[in-house]
Write a structure and sequence with these properties.
mainly alpha
């Protein structure tokens, strides 16, 4: 990513702020956060993720829905886990709880993702065994929602592998990583 793409997102953010579209501002900040992470600027990525949460909360406080808050919280949690910063469990719980309030008992992609985010944070900062059990239970729901070959099933297998590794279950970790690779290969139809 070039500085020009970062500049465009900054201009977009400024324009959206002037329009008062805080949900879109939160979305831009999430994207900028991911860009900064990919560029190796972890402190900037974390700061932008925090700003995204603030913008999304402003949207919700102004009568908007909670979905942008859920998304921004999940980006914040992912950033915190990616750069090994403590404190991810609280925003992960908020994202999970808000998703439950918004989506109820419906099987929904973002609700499952919020649960995955919380379970992964729980693996690293809470009860690792409970987090791993939640990740494994989400696999059935994820497959039912998206089908076996969807990339989100592979992503969940990666989370399960990391969780298994963190609790010392080397065999479980290897099995999850193998399944993740098998699914990736199946999706690629044999192409590298």
């Amino acid at each position: 990513p070039s500085d020009a793409s970062t500049g465009q997102k900054t201009l977009a953010e400024q324009s959206l702020r002037q329009l008062g579209n805080m949900a879109a501002v939160a979305n831009v900040l999430c994207a900028r956060s991911e860009l900064r992470r990919d560029q190796g600027h972890h402190d900037a990525a974390l700061a932008m993720a925090g700003q995204a949460v603030t913008a999304a909360e402003a949207h919700a406080a102004g009568g908007g829905d909670q979905r942008p808050v859920i998304e921004a919280l999940m980006v914040q949690v992912e950033m915190m886990l990616y750069v090994h910063r403590p404190g991810a469990l609280h925003p992960a719980q908020r994202a999970r709880d808000l998703a439950r309030a918004v989506y109820g008992e419906r099987l929904h992609d973002r609700a499952l993702e919020a649960q995955r985010c919380h379970a992964l944070a729980q693996v690293w900062e809470g009860d690792a065994e409970a987090g791993l059990a939640t990740l494994k239970s989400l696999l059935v729901q994820r497959r039912r929602l998206t089908g076996e070959r969807h990339h989100s099933v592979s992503s969940l297998q990666l989370s399960i592998g990391l969780g298994a590794e963190s609790v010392g279950d080397v065999v479980g970790a290897i099995e999850a990583f193998r399944e993740m690779l098998r699914l990736a290969r199946a999706r690629s139809d044999g192409q590298p």
